[in-house]
C-alpha cells in the first residue's frame, strides 16, 4: 500500500500496530465478477448473501488526503505525481489499480483511474467533518462495485482494522449484482443523473431511474421527504419545530418503499433520541434497540454510530 499525506501524518501512521494484524475474515468467496447488461463488469453474488454478512474486508492499495498540494510540474495532465506515487507498489497492487475503469478525460489515465474509483476513508477513530481532513483510497475489489440509486450494499471504512468493508443492507439473491451508490441517493433523479454523467460518464439505468414520469416523481417526493426529516432530526439542526412521532413513522415507511435501508438506522437513532427528549421512554427504548440491530448489521461493532447507540 502507498499512503500519501504530510510527513508528520505519514510518520504517525507508520507506527500503528494495525499493520501487524491480519484483516478481518470475510466471505469474498460469495462474490464473483461478470458482465452486467449496460454496465460492463460487475460484482455478482455467487450464492444468496444474507443481510449483514461481511462480504469483503480489505485494505486500500492506494490512500491519500483528498486534497493534496501539487506543483505545476506535477499535474493531472502529465500524471507525474501519481506515477511516482505508485511506482514502488508490487505488481499485484499496480495491476489492481491499472485494471480499473477510467471515466475522466483531459488528464493522465492513471489520474483518471484514481479519481474515478476513489472511496472515502476515515483516518481518525471518530469521523472528522472537516473537509480538509477527508481521505480517499483505492481497493482491489471494493472499487470494482457498480452504482445503483437503490444500492443493496453499504460501504463502511473500519478505522480499527484500516479496512474498507461491504455488508449487504438486505438479502442479495444468487446471481444478483452487488451494488453501492456513487451519488447522493436522496437527491432528485435529474440531479443524480447529472452528477453521474459529470463525474463518472454514464447514464444510470437502475430500476428507480427507469421509472415512468409519474412514478419517478413520486419516488423523488419520498426521497425529498426522507432528506428533510434527516435534516430535522440531525443533532445540531437549526430547525426549531422537531417532527412528531407519527411523521417519523411515516418516513420509515418511505424508507422501506424506496429500499434505502441505511437511512432506517439513522432515523431510528435520531428519532429515538428525540423521543427521549420528549419523555417517551417506552418508544425510545424500542427504537434504540432497533437502531442498535441496524447499525450492527450494516457496519459492525467498530461502527462509531453503533457505539453511540450503545452509550445513549
CATH superfamily of the largest domain: SET domain
| Structural classification | alpha+beta
Overall geometry: globular
Helix content: 25-40%
Distance linking N and C termini: 37 Å
Mean pLDDT metric: 92
Number of domains: 2
Give the biggest sheet: 4 strands, mixed
Q: Would you identify the regions where 5 or more consecutive residues have pLDDT less than 50?
A: none
Tell me the number of helical segments per DSSP (H or I, 4 or more residues long). 10
Name the CATH architecture of the largest domain: Beta Complex
Approximate strand percentage: 5-15%
Instruction: Give the spatial strand order of the biggest sheet.
Output: 1-5-7-6
- Quick one: CATH class of the largest domain? Mainly Beta
For the secondary structure, the number of strands is 11
Order of helices and strands: EHEEEEHHHEEEEEEHHHHHH
CATH third-tier fold name of the largest domain? Beta-clip-like
Organism: Guyanagaster necrorhizus
InterPro entries: SET_dom, SET_dom_sf, SET_domain_protein, TPR-like_helical_dom_sf
Domain SET: 29-183
Protein name: SET domain-containing protein
Amino acid at each position: 500500500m502507498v499512503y500519501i499525506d504530510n510527513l508528520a501524518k505519514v510518520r504517525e501512521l507508520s507506527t500503528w500496530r494495525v499493520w501487524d494484524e491480519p484483516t478481518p475474515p470475510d466471505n469474498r468467496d460469495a462474490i464473483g465478477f461478470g458482465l452486467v447488461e449496460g454496465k460492463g463488469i460487475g460484482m455478482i453474488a455467487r450464492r444468496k448473501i444474507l443481510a449483514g454478512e461481511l462480504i469483503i474486508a480489505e485494505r486500500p492499495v492506494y490512500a491519500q488526503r483528498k486534497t493534496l498540494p501539487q506543483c505545476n510540474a506535477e499535474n493531472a495532465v502529465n500524471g507525474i505525481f501519481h506515477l511516482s506515487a505508485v511506482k514502488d507498489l508490487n505488481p499485484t497492487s499496480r495491476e489492481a489499480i491499472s485494471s480499473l475503469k477510467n471515466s475522466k478525460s483531459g488528464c493522465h489515465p492513471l489520474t483518471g483511474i484514481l479519481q474515478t474509483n476513489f472511496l472515502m476513508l476515515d483516518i481518525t477513530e471518530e469521523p472528522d467533518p472537516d473537509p480538509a481532513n477527508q481521505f480517499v483510497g483505492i481497493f482491489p475489489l471494493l472499487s470494482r462495485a457498480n452504482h445503483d440509486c437503490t444500492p443493496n450494499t453499504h460501504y463502511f471504512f473500519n478505522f480499527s482494522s484500516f479496512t474498507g468493508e461491504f455488508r449487504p443492507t438486505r438479502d442479495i439473491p444468487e446471481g444478483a449484482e452487488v451494488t453501492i451508490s456513487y451519488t447522493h441517493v436522496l437527491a432528485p433523479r435529474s440531479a443524480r443523473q447529472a452528477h453521474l454523467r459529470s463525474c463518472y460518464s454514464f447514464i444510470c439505468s437502475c430500476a428507480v431511474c427507469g421509472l415512468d414520469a409519474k412514478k419517478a416523481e413520486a419516488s423523488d417526493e419520498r426521497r425529498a421527504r426522507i432528506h428533510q426529516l434527516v435534516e430535522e432530526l440531525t443533532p445540531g439542526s437549526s430547525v426549531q419545530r422537531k417532527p412528531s412521532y407519527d411523521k417519523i413513522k411515516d418516513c420509515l415507511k418511505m424508507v422501506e418503499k424506496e429500499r434505502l435501508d441505511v437511512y432506517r438506522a439513522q432515523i431510528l437513532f435520531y428519532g429515538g433520541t428525540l423521543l427521549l427528549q420528549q419523555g417517551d421512554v417506552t418508544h425510545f427504548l424500542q427504537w434504540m434497540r432497533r437502531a442498535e440491530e441496524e447499525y450492527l448489521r450494516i457496519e459492525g461493532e467498530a461502527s462509531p454510530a453503533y457505539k453511540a447507540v450503545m452509550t445513549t
